[in-house]
Amino acid sequence: MPEDTPETKEWVLEPETEYRFELDPGTSLAVKLSHGHAEIFGFELVEGQTYVFGAECKGAIFTWQGCIIEVTGHPSTDYVSEETPMNAYGNLHVAFEQMRVRALQTLSGSLPPDTKSDVNAEPPRVLILGPENSGKTSVCKILVNYTVRAGQEWTPLLINLDPNEGGWSAPGALSVAPVSSPLPTSSPANTLGTAATSAPTSLSSNALLPLVYWYGHPETRKNPLLMDRLIRNLGENVRERQENDPRGSAAGIIVDTPSSLGSGPASSTEHRQRLIKACVESFRINVILVVGHEKLNVEMQRTYGSLLTVVKIPKSGGVVELDHGYRERVHSYQMHTYMYGQVIQPPAGIPASSVSADTFTDIILSPSSSVISFDDLTIYRIGAATMAPSDALPVGAKRVVSETQPVLVSPSQPGSGLLNAVLALLSPFNPDENERYDEEILDLTVVGFLVITKLDIPQRKMTVLAPNQGSVIGKTAIVGSYEWQDQ
Ligand SMILES: Nc1ncnc2c1ncn2[C@@H]1O[C@H](COP(=O)(O)OP(=O)(O)OP(=O)(O)O)[C@@H](O)[C@H]1O
C-alpha cells in the first residue's frame, strides 16, 4: 500500500454510543456504514453507502441500536464516546411530536372527545439558547432532522439567527427555510444543508429555498438595532406564511441563535435580553431550550417561566471549541462554496462513485466575473460603520447618522472599503412610489451575493464576481464587514 493511502479502520459501535471525529485543513474522511443503523446529527445513513467529510468538519456518527462503520482517512482526532445527550434530545423530540400531532388534530377538529377543550394546542416554536460552543446548531439540526424523519410529512421552519453561521448563503445572513428532507453533514460550509443553486442539478430534491436578510457582521453587538429589526422582519414573514398555511405550521419552528444571546459580559445583558425578547415575540416562541448553562437557565426561567416552557438540556461532551481562526476559515469555505460549489475529494482509495450523492460533496458551479460602471450599482452601508469618529467632525457638528440609517457608499472614494467586500444584492424596491419609505432598504430580502474583486477609480469601473450572469445593473446592494478573496 503506498505510504499516503490511508488505511481503513473498522469501528464496532455499541448501542447509544457515537464515533466522534475532527479533521485538519485539506484532509477528508470517508465513513461507510457497513452494518446496522447510524445517523449524523439526526441524518440517517444508508447501509452500504459511503459518506465523505471535509473542510475541517467535526461531527459524530451516533447509533441507537449499534452498528459497524468503516472509516478511511486521517482525522486529527477520533474516538468513541459512550456518554451522549441523545436520550434527552430524543425525549424532547417525542414531546414536540406530541405537540405537533395535537396542534394538527385541533386544526382539523379531530381531537378525541375528552380533550375537545384543549383549544390552545400549539405546535412547538422553539428557541435554542446557549453560550459559545455549546452545540446549539447541532441540537437544532438533530431536532429538525428527527421531525422530517417522523413520517408525517412535516416541514418545520428552521431559522438561523446566527450571522456567524451564515446559514444557507453567505456569512452575515439571517434566514429561514422550510425543511422537508433531512439535512446532511459533510462540511462546515453548509452545516444547515444547501440552498438551491444555479447548477443543473439532480440534487434539488433536498435543496432548500431560504428567505434571507443580510445583517453583514459576525457580531450581534456591532449593530443590535439592525439585528432587532431583521429578526422582526423574519418574524413577519414567518407569520404570514403560517397564516396562509395553518396545517403546514403544525410542524413548528426551530430557531438557532448566536452565542452572544446566551452569554457575555454583564455589560451586554441589556443587549442580550432585548434580542431574546425580539425572538420570543417575533416567532411567538413557546419553548426555550437552554443548552448546558445553569445561570442562563435561571435567568430565562425568571423572565419567561410564567409565559412559556423553559427547559435546560445537556451539552454534548463532543462539541468542539471553535476558535476565531477556524471561524474565519469557515467563512472563506462558505463564500468559496457559494461561488464555486463544493467538491470534497474522498481519501485515496475511495472511488468517487461509491460516495453517497446526498451530501453535496460534488457540486461544481461557475461564477461569472464582469466589469460594471460605478454608476450601475447603488451601494449602501447600514449605520455607524461609515461614521467618522466624533472628534473628526467639524467643530459644532452633530452626528446625524443613526444605527439603522442607510448611508450611500461611493466606490470612487478612496478607502471606501469596497475592494474584496461581500455585497448582498437586494430585491427591488416597492414599484408603487406611494408605498416607499425612508428605511425600506432594511426590509428588503436578499436575492444573491457578489464580491468586488477590482476597483478602477480613474476609469470608474469595478469587477464583480457573482454566481451567475444575471445583470446587477440598476440594482441596490448592501455592504457589511465581510471580505473575501478567491485563493
Ligand atoms: N457530538 C459531537 N461530536 C463531535 N463534534 C460535535 C458534536 N456536537 C457538535 N460537534 C461539532 O462542534 C462544533 C460546534 O458545534 P455547534 O456549531 O453545534 O455549536 P454552537 O453552540 O452552535 O456554536 P456557536 O458558538 O458557533 O454558536 C461543530 O463543528 C459541530 O459539528
From TrEMBL:
GO terms for molecular function: ATP binding; polynucleotide 5'-hydroxyl-kinase activity. Residues 239-268 are annotated as: Disordered. One of its GO terms (biological process) is tRNA splicing, via endonucleolytic cleavage and ligation. Residues 130-341 form the Clp1 P-loop domain. InterPro entries: Clp1 (IPR028606), Clp1/Grc3 (IPR045116), Clp1_C (IPR010655), Clp1_C_sf (IPR038238), Clp1_N (IPR032324), Clp1_N_sf (IPR038239), CLP1_P (IPR032319), P-loop_NTPase (IPR027417). ATP binds at E18, K58, N133, S134, G135, K136, T137, S138. It holds the Pfam family CLP1_N. Residues 13-103 form the Clp1 N-terminal domain. Signal peptide: none annotated. It comes from the Eukaryota. Keywords: ATP-binding, mRNA processing, Nucleotide-binding, Nucleus. Its main location: nucleus. One of its GO terms (cellular component) is mRNA cleavage factor complex. Residues 257-268 have a biased composition (Polar residues). Required for endonucleolytic cleavage during polyadenylation-dependent pre-mRNA 3'-end formation. Belongs to the Clp1 family. Clp1 subfamily. Component of a pre-mRNA cleavage factor complex. Interacts directly with PCF11. PANTHER family: CLEAVAGE/POLYADENYLATION FACTOR IA SUBUNIT CLP1P (PTHR12755), POLYRIBONUCLEOTIDE 5'-HYDROXYL-KINASE CLP1 (PTHR12755:SF6). This is Polynucleotide 5'-hydroxyl-kinase GRC3.
